[in-house]
Amino acid sequence: MLESLGALADPPWIHLIVGLCVLLDVFVPFLPSGVLLIAAATAAGTRTATVGVPSMSGGSAVADLFALALCAATASVLGDLAAYRVAWRGGDRFDRAIARSRRLAAAQERLGTALTRGGGIVVVLARFAPAGRSVVSLGAGVAHRTVREFLPWSMLAGVAWAAYSVTLGYFGGHLLGATWFSTAVSVFALFAAGSAALYVMRRPERAAAHSG
């Protein structure tokens, strides 16, 4: 798969493609930004595994990995802020849409409580959970949480997610080569982290259900 990407798999094009995909997937959660980021990191990991093979951009593959992670993290934060501002301005409409879903309403309530108490780690966990980033960013905007409450956690979430994804892809490519198997193993590890994050986020719901 990675070999068939051709020139698009090399910097700077892959950085632009990954950045655009990450930026937009807060609005279109089914975009495969995580898979694409891992595939790009796998390609860079494969280059470092081959001694003496320089990066196509003229620098080292390690520098490419750092640039890739920085691009993904920056795009993640910018996408979060865009969704946050859109939801802030269209609060009533988004609020009605969220109110129709018990799950989204509960997530919005948990988010508000967590941010107010300084427990914005839920923002970081949500970045790994399926569609969690969208719920958190839109929910923060609808609830009119301040930028000071939301932005630092969004930045931490973007850096953590990008670093984890790039690390997975790098070691997959470095150890197993640019193959479907190495990419699949890395993607599985990413989804496993997402499932774990979702479980942690839902624990308060289960505790409340049992106590009730």
TrEMBL record:
Ranges annotated as spanning the membrane: 12-45, 150-172, 178-201
Membrane topology: Multi-pass membrane protein
Keywords: Cell membrane, Membrane, Transmembrane, Transmembrane helix
Residue ranges of domain VTT in the record: 59-170
Domain of life (superkingdom): Bacteria
Subcellular location: Cell membrane
Family stated for the protein in its record: Belongs to the DedA family.
Protein name: VTT domain-containing protein
Organism of provenance: Streptomyces olivaceiscleroticus
Organism classification: Bacteria, Bacillati, Actinomycetota, Actinomycetes, Kitasatosporales
